Amino acid sequence: MFGKRLGLRWRAVPMALLVLVLVLLASPALVGFAAVRGYPELAISLVDQEDLRTYTQLIKQVKSNEGLDDQEKQEAINLIEEKYVKSRNAKIPADKLNVDTLERAFERRMALERQYEKSMGTILNKYFSDANYKQIAVSVKKEDKILAMKKIIELLDTRKLQGQEKALALYYLDKFAPYAGDEQLAARNRQFNVPDRDVAVTYSYTTNSYNRTKARQYIDHYWNSYNPDFPNLTYIGGDCTNFASQVLHAGNLPMDYRGGWYVYPKQIPPRYPAPKSIGELNYSWSLADPSSWISAKQFNRYWSQHVYSKERYSGTELKNLQTFDDVWRKAWHGDVVQILRPVWWWYEPYHTLEVYSFTFISSKDIILAAHTNNTKSLSFKEIINRYPNYKFDIFYVKQGY
Questions:
Q1: What angle separates helix 53-63 from helix 70-84, to the nearest 10 degrees?
Q2: Alpha-carbon span 311 to 323, nearest angstrom
Q3: Residue 398: which domain range?
Q4: Local structure of residue 375 (DSSP, 8 states)
Q5: Are 342 and 210 members of one domain?
Q6: Averaging pLDDT over each range in 38-42, 109-113, 176-180, 300-304, which range is the top one?
Q7: What is the pLDDT of residue 285?
Q8: Are residues 366 and 266 located together in one domain of the fold?
Q9: Lower Cβ count inside 10 Å, N or C end of the chain?
Q10: How many domains are there within the chain?
């Protein structure tokens, strides 16, 4: 399924790692996933969370192996994932979900994304014979991703792609073009992936209308429960971004049906208030695809254009007291924090939290609320200390209170 078995240079892999790979590939204890039709982003954002400890440990060992270059690491990971996506394991109970589980879910999402990348390579090989695009499409090198995207644009311009092939092409372009450092590619991606539509929620509206008191009251009411007016997504990818969207909506920000930030039930009451599959979600709830209401990645893109300001910091930067104090002074109840995890040569958001309160007597800290795990007492400083190599986006919804 993933990668080229013959492309792996086994001699570069230490014997202990090779034995571990072979043992794990033969084990039924790895995790499987359900195939999903339709635009890939929704499927990826809703991959259900399962016990990936064995898989994740192996991936981490490969990534930290100094004897392999980046290409060799990716080839080893591809081979591991080929077996991983076919196998099964028990799901983690809902009460055990936490930040570590979100990290494992992120690894699982990346495995699913690799499958889409390989499928895109197969499509490119179907239309072009000047190179091995099956290998190029899954390469972790930026120049290979750029080459694959340029070929995709050729196909989109000539309208040769239809149906699922077109959906995969648009997904691939949208995933990598924003991080390629190529403005022409980024512009073409916006042309293909951003519909020609007006946006109902504007910057001036959020600045003038956001009610921080109502946003905080909503956190107080629902931080450890679920509003039946919205889906509970605990079982299919986590409820963190869904809850953050609810908090903003409770603070007087209207749903944006033209901009894709919305969710509403198809039945009253919905048949599946807490869906356990994408099929159940689609049966009972209406969402954009991809959805900026529930996807951390799409939420980031949407609200980056609709808040007063957004700032990005590394964990190392925020450990500087002066920098943290500056964030502490500017943040208010109802602002949003996203954790971004490194993905080769870029970062992607994978957890969304809300500013709930502050400490300032013994030391300054920002207290965060979130779903999955449900909390309204999470120390921002503790998160920063735990993930110094991650990045953090701070969304200041409006200036001041």
A1: 160
A2: 12
A3: 200-401
A4: E
A5: yes
A6: 300-304
A7: 96
A8: yes
A9: C
A10: 2
